[in-house]
Design a protein that fits this description.
- An eight-stranded parallel β-barrel has the order 8-9-10-13-14-15-16-18, surrounded by four helices.
- The N and C termini lie far apart (64 Å).
- By secondary structure, it is an alpha/beta fold.
- The protein is elongated.
- It is built from 15 helices and 18 strands.
- A hairpin with a 5-residue loop joins β11 and β12.
């Protein structure tokens, strides 16, 4: 049976018009290519996945009234429906984020990566492949969904600084150099991880410290080339910029040599493998720093050259120590430094210099009379073994300096009270305060030296945990360490902050079979993330350790 319909009341008519306006606004938004999942922007500690009820604007919640509905305008602005964006959660945390209202950005098939300079081709191709986008090269036109990478001399902030703008359905990452642009793509990659959304607004970011490194002892424990390349990818994504390879020690010499093939261990990296590692690292803006330690830690080299091994007054050979009074010793080590300068093109070179056994005895001159005689001949009647050892370090520094490298050496390769002073440009890799005649970091810093923090209290992952070492935890680093905590647990004076170039987390293979390389990768995972957070921004982290670890788990 049919029924007559009554005319709606004025109140009901207004409610009907409100529903129509809201429905039209949503339809326009969806029709423009912005799905409902894109309402979200940013990731807070308690935020759900993009598009969840917790992140949608109030107008996307059933029964609520939107700003568009309250405004009697026939063409409401969609941006008024978006909440103010939240600061993205990344590792390391971004320096600053200017929030804005908008849908944010999410990668979709068919979107382009474009650049304003051919120098950004590597960065563009990499991020395009990672995000499933199309690399379109140099383009001046603008399309919806574009990710644009740009070099801009006016950016300022240094070569590693960048600005990332997410606005109107597009992303632009700008830096004064390709390194900064690359780091911007790392931030974006983390923001959109697992279907996330890059929040609307502007990120301005730059590292606090220029040196952010990982040191790997491949001499005592053989690591495969593939494993090392995996670490390079991890380091690049975390914005580390240096990988140090300690490839010569008493237990092994792990890279092929053309000048002295007799010293190379059976398990080693070929030069082709090293070139592949260096090439991959360069693409990720990671410099590979070689370390050939001398005059100690040369056992594998000396096994093939016993005539150059240091002997004490009674004729007993000293493990790992080369006789620096013999001309052949300098020629052998310089041959290697010259050869590998062609393999490692980076600007830094670690010369070692630590734990020379001749200087770990009570009376070096009496114990090693040949060294004492050489010192007196070179430096006069007051010449000491410490003088001779310092001169050795200076000569090796001159060798790598000729290849336009900046030398650095372990802090126990510098000695107090010598007439021969270490060259001013040799940077201090400060790792311990346990050596004979230990010197506080302030002694090096007050002398004007630049210093890199390798603090063995926090940053040494020593396989087998010998000599009271324990595997460091990410939590302890995150909560207690900063780049100014150079020795033990006490920070140096803030006045020296600029001289501290940065820091390294180091893996040492004292007992190489204590862990597999996969166990090492798992063991260093959170320490690496904690270290880079503190090197990128030494201030109090924005998250608790629990929140930081949960973020790391979500991003992996």
């Amino acid at each position: 049976m049919s029924q007559h319909r009554r005319r709606p009341s004025a109140r009901e008519a207004r409610q009907l018009r409100t529903r129509v306006v809201v429905g039209a606004a949503v339809a326009v938004t969806v029709g423009a290519g912005v799905g409902l999942g894109m309402w979200a922007s940013g990731h807070g500690d308690d935020s759900g996945p993009a598009g969840s009820a917790a992140q949608r604007p109030s107008g996307d919640t059933a029964g609520s009234t939107t700003g568009a509905a309250r405004t009697p305008s026939p063409t409401p602005s969609p941006t008024r429906s978006y909440p103010l964006s939240k600061t993205p959660r990344t590792i390391p945390a971004v320096g600053a984020h200017q929030p804005e209202r908008g849908p944010g950005w999410r990668p979709r098939g068919g979107q382009r990566v474009v650049v304003n300079d051919a120098a950004l081709a590597d960065e563009g191709r990499l991020v395009a492949g990672e995000l499933g986008l199309t690399y379109a090269g140099e383009k001046a036109d603008v399309k919806d969904g574009d990710l644009r990478l740009a070099l801009d001399d006016g950016q300022g902030g240094g070569a590693e600084a960048y600005t990332m703008t997410v606005r109107a359905g597009r992303v632009e990452i700008k830096g004064s150099a390709d390194a900064g642009v690359f780091y911007g793509t790392r931030t974006l990659k983390q923001e959109v991880h697992a279907g996330g959304t890059a929040p609307e607004g502007v990120v301005r970011d730059a590292p606090a410290k220029a040196v952010r490194g990982f040191s790997l002892d491949i001499a005592r424990k053989n690591f495969t080339a593939g494993w090392i390349e995996d670490r390079v990818r991890e380091l690049g994504d975390l914005k580390f910029n240096q990988l140090q390879l300690h490839f010569s020690d008493d237990q092994g010499f792990r890279i092929a040599s053309d000048t002295h093939p007799e010293i190379v261990s059976a398990q080693h990296l070929t030069k082709a493998q090293v070139r592949s590692i260096v090439r991959l690292a360069a693409q990720r803006h990671v410099t590979v720093v070689p370390e050939i330690d001398s005059p100690g830690h040369l056992g594998a080299v000396l096994a093939a050259h016993p005539e150059l091994q240091l002997r004490n007054a009674s004729g007993t050979a000293v493990t790992g120590a080369i006789d620096i009074s013999k001309a052949g010793s300098a020629r052998l080590v310089d041959d290697l430094l010259d050869e590998y300068a062609g393999l490692f093109p980076g600007k830094r070179w670690h010369l070692g210099g630590d734990e020379y056994r001749a200087l770990t005895v009570n009376d070096p001159e009496a114990t090693y009379p040949q060294l004492a005689a050489a010192a007196r001949e070179a430096f006069g009647a007051g010449g000491t073994v410490a003088d001779l050892t310092t001169d050795w370090l200076n000569d090796r520094a001159a060798t790598v300096r000729a290849h336009d490298r900046t030398p650095l050496a372990w802090n126990d390769g510098f000695f107090r009270g010598t007439s021969v002073q270490p060259a001013k440009d040799i940077q201090v890799a400060y790792w311990t305060g346990k050596e004979i005649g230990a010197r506080q970091p302030g002694e090096y810093l007050s002398a004007g030296r630049r210093l890199i923090n390798f603090n063995d209290e926090f940053l040494y992952y020593v396989l087998g945990q010998p000599n009271q070492f324990v595997y460091p935890t990410g939590q302890r680093i995150y909560e207690q360490w900063t780049p100014r905590v150079v020795r033990g647990t006490q920070a140096v004076d803030a006045a020296y902050d600029d001289q501290i170039q940065g820091g390294y987390f180091a893996v040492w293979g004292d007992f190489p079979n204590a862990q597999t390389q996969d166990q090492v990768a798992a063991g260093v995972r959170m320490p690496l993330r904690a270290v880079v957070q503190k090197l990128w921004d030494a201030d109090r982290p924005p998250l608790s350790w629990t929140g930081f670890k949960a973020l790391a788990d979500r991003l992996d």
